[in-house]
Amino acid sequence: MPTVLETESTLTDRYQTTVPEAVRRTLKLGKRDKLHYTIRANGEVVLTRATGAEGDDPALGAFLGFLAADITRHPERLQAIDASLVARVQSLTEGVEVDLDAPLSADDE
């Protein structure tokens, strides 16, 4: 008989949750991976790793693939971000506060 794993997570005020480590490991999930939900008539929800790329921008995907291949072929071309650019980005975002736990407005739901 197969082993059954059970785990829980909690919803935030924004209806977000962290996928438990056991689930991430079992589904071999990484950052930015997509999840697929199947909701059965009896209320049971099955969570699987999404296989399709529905909604993904094909041009962006091709560009990111191009970048990954180029980095693999020519790692010597990689350069550190210039300190002045870091300082510029920090100056543009200084004082901007984001509360990730704040409820979304009706327009964001």
Automatic annotation (TrEMBL):
At the top level, the lineage of the source is Bacteria
Q: Signal peptide span per the entry?
A: none
> Any idea what this protein is called?
Antitoxin PrlF
Q: Which NCBIfam families match?
A: PRK09974.1
Which InterPro entries does the entry mention? PrlF_antitoxin, SpoVT-AbrB_sf
